[in-house]
Amino acid sequence: MTLPVRIVSTSLINMLTQIPANNLAYLAQARASLNVQDCMTIYDKWAATYNDEVRDEAQSYVAPVLVAQVALKSSNNPAKSVILDAGCGTGLVGQALAMAGAKAIDGLDLSPAMLTVANQTGSYRSLA
Questions:
Q1: What are the Methyltransferase domain coordinates in residue numbering (predicted)?
Q2: Which of 44, 71, 73, 106 could form a disulfide with 113 if both were Cys (CB 3.0 to 4.6 A apart)?
Q3: pTM for the model
């Protein structure tokens, strides 16, 4: 039996969100980074405060819920689909997917510190 795989991309998250760079110093640094290693270092430093910063009421950060809605809408049966959250960060999309009924969510991210936070959500089947 082959299960359908759904891919959720952080590119979609970036398109859907309107977080002002001047409000988030780490975001401005990440956008200005010139290579993968620099970007990973920035996100590793940001991991501890990321959720608090993006969940601030002033941010109106709804991207995780919107991405989950789009991903689940493309599935006939979210509870039986395997979903890959590419660039899962701290797991906000995984949490939204799990709350909407998804059961098999795998997350990938380049930042070990972000993966540590994502693991604490309990939403993922596996993280790498």
A1: 83-122
A2: 44
A3: 0.77
